[in-house]
Design a protein that fits this description.
With 339 residues, the protein is an alpha/beta fold. The chain has 13 helices and 12 strands. The strands form 2 sheets. The protein has a 6-stranded parallel β-sheet, sandwiched between helices. The longest helix is centred in the N-terminal third of the chain and has 16 residues.
Length: 339
């Protein structure tokens, strides 16, 4: 984003406004962390911000500061639509195409107030008046830190905002293991810790709150894993029946796809999860090295994301989706250049 664009945004934020903050559907740690960090920042500038998520966020993120103030579009369409229509400014965080908000897209498409997009995914759409898009960042939360700092308000980043930012960086960087974790990332983390972030407590809140049912579901997922050795690929399936058997709640399947990628020699991993209510198969892709799962998801499964982490969906049955995936894989060369 240009210096002039930041100056224009600073001017927009110079007087109190009703502002809506919208992350993507099925918000993860980066989406919720960036949305709530921005929320707390805007409060300090005397704005009236509201975070509106398309659908429920996972329970393991409910400890984030003021998460109880977050409005859920799917649970209260009438009132959240009213808030969106009355907003004088909107932030789109951690997504770069309106369809990533699900049913909210039909409302967002009709709004006349300006949008500010802050996002780190590839190939942004042009719906926003101001687009802060940079794929070099490993998380939108890291961009929020830079956004606030560039506006000249780094002094307003307090422990509360720092906690939200830390959460998003931690989750989207795979606990600092993913390739886009840079020296700058760690320097930001050091600043956040100096502001009081409880860096030993937050990982426990995020990753050590499993229920017995969620661990049983993980066990079933691992039992269902298939390995395509010649293609250096692993994939997992979970049916609606299996989700119901183990009392699935939102967030229970978070990170399961990474177990496939943790196997020695595996370069490409996927998980296919059946959701009968939405009549779709939700898909997550992960890869190592140069294998581009963003391109794969965009070309074949109506999705996208990053080179090494992407998502998609299928309107076929679970079996048909897996068959399509296996057929695609047999036609590809997926080399193991990691070991």
């Amino acid at each position: 984003m240009t210096k002039e664009a930041f100056q224009s945004i600073a001017q927009l934020l110079s007087s109190p406004k009703k502002i809506a903050i919208v992350p993507h559907r099925s918000p993860d740690g980066d989406a919720m962390g960036s949305a709530l960090a921005l929320y707390h920042f805007l409060l300090q500038l005397n704005h009236i911000p509201t975070v509106i998520v398309p659908n429920e966020f996972p329970e393991f993120l409910a400890w984030l500061p003021r998460s109880e103030k977050v409005r859920v579009y799917e649970k209260d369409r009438e009132n959240t639509t009213k808030i969106l229509k009355e907003s004088e400014l909107l932030f789109a965080l951690d997504f770069n195409a309106l369809h990533r908000t699900g049913e909210m897209e039909q409302v967002l498409n009709k709004l006349v107030a300006p949008f500010i997009m802050i996002d780190h995914h590839q190939s942004p759409d042009g719906f926003a008046q101001f687009t802060y898009s940079d794929t070099q960042f490993g998380s939108t939360c890291e961009m929020i830190y830079n956004f606030i700092s560039t506006l000249g308000h780094k002094n307003l980043i307090n422990k509360t905002i720092a906690t939200c930012i830390y959460t998003g960086i931690l989750t989207d960087s795979g606990s600092f293991r993913f390739p886009k974790t840079t020296g700058t990332t760690h320097r930001i983390i050091a600043d956040l810790i100096d502001l009081g972030v409880e860096n030993t407590k937050i990982p426990a809140l995020l990753f050590d709150n499993n229920s017995f049912d969620s661990l049983q579901l993980l066990g079933r997922a691992l039992q269902n894993m298939k390995i395509l050795t010649e293609k250096n690929t692993a994939y997992i399936t979970l049916s609606q029946h299996e989700l119901d058997t183990f009392n699935y709640t939102k967030g229970d399947t978070e990170g399961i796809v990474n177990y496939g990628l943790s196997i020695k020699g595996i370069v490409f991993a996927a998980i296919f999860i059946e959701h009968k209510e939405e009549n779709i198969i939700k898909i997550s892709f992960r890869s190592k090295g140069d294998f581009d799962v963003n391109q794969f998801a965009r070309e074949h499964f109506n999705g996208g994301g990053h080179i090494n982490a992407a998502g998609g969906k299928s309107n076929l049955t679970l079996q048909q989706t897996v068959e399509k995936f296996e057929k695609l894989i047999t036609q590809m060369t997926i080399q193991n250049e990691i070991y």
